[in-house]
Amino acid sequence: MQPVREAVTVHGTALERLLVQADAAPRLEALARYASAQGVPVERVSRQALDRASQGGMHQGVLCWAPELRLLELGPLLDEPRLLAIALDGIQDPQNFGAVLRSAVALGNVPVVWGEHASAPLTPATFRASAGAIEHARLCRVRALHGALSEAAARGAQVIGLDARAPAALHAFDLTLPTVLVIGSEHEGMKRAVRRACSALAHLIPPGPVESLNASVAAGAALYEAQVQRLKSSG
């Protein structure tokens, strides 16, 4: 339900329509009233109609048709003087991908960069996992992640790959500089070409019984460290 609410908040009358289950619970009725107040056409339909419209997907009693997500171009993104971005290498689980997007939006609306191959697609599962944050996210899909990282480094950004075995700690880096933080998959880590494109490697915490953090947890911790440094420098 939250992804639909965020879609209404962001897009308003740009939404084609919103379907709500006819015998909806009070929370869904409240969402329907909110959508109507924003000028969104609301239709009350049967559960069966929602099942057909969702084509077997999970819908929690409500569906809407939103405009396509807007993707950023890499070039203008790298021109940002206080660049801070998260790059995802091989994150295929939509739950992890969506959770990273939520952290990125919550911690400064940081852009998320990923390669078009071997990554979780932008599916309803990803939208649900982000709890609607995807409607606010700054998204940049590139043809080859290692090429995008090499370009970032060539333009003066520090490209820091997170690696539990790296000798240096992330907090030792000056994250107030233009920075791209790279996170690999939990199972394989960063691919060789992506690792080579990094200008440095860093760990979040010293190695312990569990060698690596979940990708979304690592993204949240890394972005928090970066934002704390930036807040201190601006204060």
Structural features:
single chain; 235 residues; alpha/beta; 60s Ribosomal Protein L30, Chain: A; Alpha/beta knot; 2 domains; 6-stranded parallel sheet; 3-stranded mixed sheet; 9 helices; elongated
Description of the molecule:
This protein is of the alpha/beta class and 235 residues long. It has 2 domains: 63 residues, Ribosomal protein L30/S12 (60s Ribosomal Protein L30, Chain: A), CATH 3.30.1330.30; 161 residues, SPOUT methyltransferase, trefoil knot domain (Alpha/beta knot, 3-Layer(aba) Sandwich), CATH 3.40.1280. 38% of the residues lie in helices and 17% in strands. Strand 1, helix 2 and strand 2 form a beta-alpha-beta unit. The radius of gyration is 20 Å and the shape is elongated. The relative contact order is 0.14. The mean pLDDT is 88.
SSE order and pairing:
Layout: H1 2-11, E1 18-21, H2 26-37, E2 42-45, H3 47-54, E3 62-64, H4 74-78, E4 84-89, H5 94-106, E5 112-115, H6 124-129, E6 139-142, H7 145-154, E7 158-162, E8 179-184, H8 192-197, E9 200-202, H9 215-234
Parallel strand pairs: 1-2, 4-5, 4-8, 5-6, 7-8, 7-9
Antiparallel strand pairs: 1-3
Outline of the structure:
With 235 residues, the chain is α/β, with parallel strands linked by helices. It folds into two domains: 2-64, Ribosomal protein L30/S12 (60s Ribosomal Protein L30, Chain: A, 2-Layer Sandwich); 74-234, Alpha/beta knot (3-Layer(aba) Sandwich), CATH 3.40.1280. The protein has nine helices and nine strands.
Distance between the termini: 38 Å
> Rg to the nearest angstrom?
20 Å
Order of helices and strands: HEHEHEHEHEHEHEEHEH
Largest sheet: 6 strands, parallel
| Uncertain ranges | none
Number of strands: 9
CATH-defined superfamily of the largest domain: SPOUT methyltransferase, trefoil knot domain
What do we call the CATH topology of the largest domain?
Alpha/beta knot
- Count of discrete structural domains: 2
How would you describe the shape?
elongated
Quote the average pLDDT: 88
| Percentage of residues assigned to helices | 25-40%
Structural class: alpha/beta
